[in-house]
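so i finally got all the pieces together for this one. its two components total, 768 residues if u count the protein bits. some of the lines might not be protein, just check the labels. i wanna see the whole assembly predicted at once instead of chain by chain like last time, that was a mess tbh
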Amino acid sequence: MPPVKLAAEALLTYTLMKKINSIFIVDDDPITVYGIKKILTSVAQCNTIFEFKNGQVAIDQIKKMVLENSELPELIFLDINMPIMDGWEFLEDFVKLPIKDTININIVTSSIDQYDKDRAEDFKSLTHHCIQFNSKPIKRSEIEEITEIVSV
Amino acid sequence: MIKNTPILSNEFLIKQLPISTVFINRESRVVLASDKWAEDFNFQGKDYIGKTIYELFNKTSGKWAKILESCFEGKFPEPEIESILTINSQEIWFEWTSTPWYDEQENIIGAIVQTENVTDRVKTELKLEKLQFLQKETTEHGKLGTWEYNKLQDSFSCSQMIRTILEVDDDFDLNIDNIVEFYKTGYNKNTISMAIYNAREKNTPFKEKLQIITANGNEKWVNVSGMPLFKNGEYVALLGIVQDITDFVLKEQKTKDNEHLLKTLINNLPLQIYIKDIQSKKLLANKSELSFLGIKDENDIIGKDDFDLYDKATAQKFRDEDVEVMISQIPMLNKELSYRNPDGSVTTFLSSKIPLKGDNGEVNGIVGISMDISEQKQKEQELKDLISVTSSQNKKLINFAHIVSHNLRSHSANFAMLLDFLAHEKDKEERSRIMEMLSESSKNLMETLHNLNDIVAINTESNIIKQKVNLNTNINKVLNKLKPQLDKNRATIISEISDDVNLNVVPSFLLNILENIVSNAIKYRKPQLDPVIKFSLNYVQNYTVLSIEDNGLGLDTKKYGHKLFGMYKTFHGNPDAKGLGLYITKNQIEAMQGKINATSQVGSGSTFNLYFNEKN
């Protein structure tokens, strides 16, 4: 493919791409973070992507943002197995925060355990936030779908 | 009033008659009486002359009148025996003989009545009659027969009962010789022959319990006794008494058989059986009960209570139960109770106590039945332990499988994702970055597999071979190994453990555990504080407890306590932390039948307590 056509294609894609202001990725595995970021940037226009090594640092940041009344992330990718504060503990704290907007939370885990799926369902019923459960490996189609929902 | 009294001149003679005599005229009035008569009937000093005898004896005419009347007609009536009650309410028997009273002209002018006190005679007669009756009844009911052999006349006589016992007819000629023939051949016949011989020759009485065969061939048991009689020191006769005791012997035999059966049963049942009276004193104890109490002879336990046999507390408990059962009259059934033996072992019983009621319906003791179920109890406990071990192992296994599958999946997911990227990536630089990540991932996977292998090895039975090792030697080994880190961080080690402490452990596990905890204490030290690690030792029940205390970061055990020893759990955001160290430590100590726990507070250090099981 000639470079010009490539650039044009890229431009076209870019203009068609959804825009998402702020995304949080909470995961201690750098490869997963790399993968999510790679797919995200290819399917959506993301202004800022924040990475957090565990639930604690992420929830601390969100609490700070709530206090400062600053703009919250529209989309959160959340791992379950993490040190210090795991995904479930993060969710427990998160759903208690006074956030009016609907935040999209995407659980990305290597677990395929029904127990974990049920737990995600439990959280869904507890909150107005949008919670989805995805098993690793995360697929491009899934991320496309997610960004679709968020940007609408 | 009295006419024609020709005898008046003889009055003093009559008065003195030694026989009680009264002269009665045809009007039944007393004309004359001997003093003896007045004395006999208590008329002394009283005015009885001229009174009718009916008045005097307070009788209506009737029979007396008839008798007197027949005398007046010249007849001689049969003597009559009659009893009267004296003033002292004594019964006196009299024989009355009435005869006509003639005057000189042979005219009957009345009756002469002579009375004789026959009280003694009557009484003797009654006594005899009674005795005869008693003898008859006794011989019949007691099946007692008697015989008598008269030596002088060489005659033999016997009562009817003898014939009944021997089942012979009245015309059967019994004698002193053939009576012996009815005894069963052998011991019985020999015994009676000897007894009779000895009685006749040596004048010795005898009493034997023997068996006879009747004329009809029936076998009977008899009590036979013999008594030689003497006159002037010379043997004249032999008296024999034979009692048929067949029914009694058979009943006795049956009772004995029953008793024997019961005794055999009680003694051979695998149960402890005893009977206690109302004071909880033992009346009976079977073999099992005796052997449990370590007593050989039943007589050594009869009359003893539990206070003689058990310690005071146990005895009081048993006594309280006994009283409860006796008062409530409700049996205590299958109550489980444990008794600590002097040697420390525990015996468990299934004990039942049943109120024992007498004929009057009142409780007069208890029957106790105890079954030693120690063995079953022990088996039950072993089974419970086994189930507990199995279920805990099962839980561990599920947990482990869960973690492993999760872990392996996260690696394979990364592989899948990276390979997918690689397939579509055209940029050379990006491709080489992905390749780098792939090789990093594969290295991680290898390491994970190694770790998992280590964990599996810990729980493999064949690797758990415990031996005695010196604790300080091993602590020093670990401290030497970690010397560079310890020195670098200016760590202080304080040990309160004396050099003679030994532990029964898997040596490699102990080293691993110590290294892990000590290196954790360095890893999670407080930034501005030089680490201090303190070793101390305690003994708790069956465990030797090694406590390792540090002054490091500590952690919120309320929040993280349950995860502290979990797999892949890290708490301080340390990039080197893999979340395996304490998991392996826990697995190793549990594989040695020990346990581990930790106390900690954020900012004020942690203490890890290692429980080494010294028994198993």
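The first strand of chain A starts at residue 18 and ends at 26.
The first helix of chain A runs from residue 3 to 16.
anyway lmk what u think
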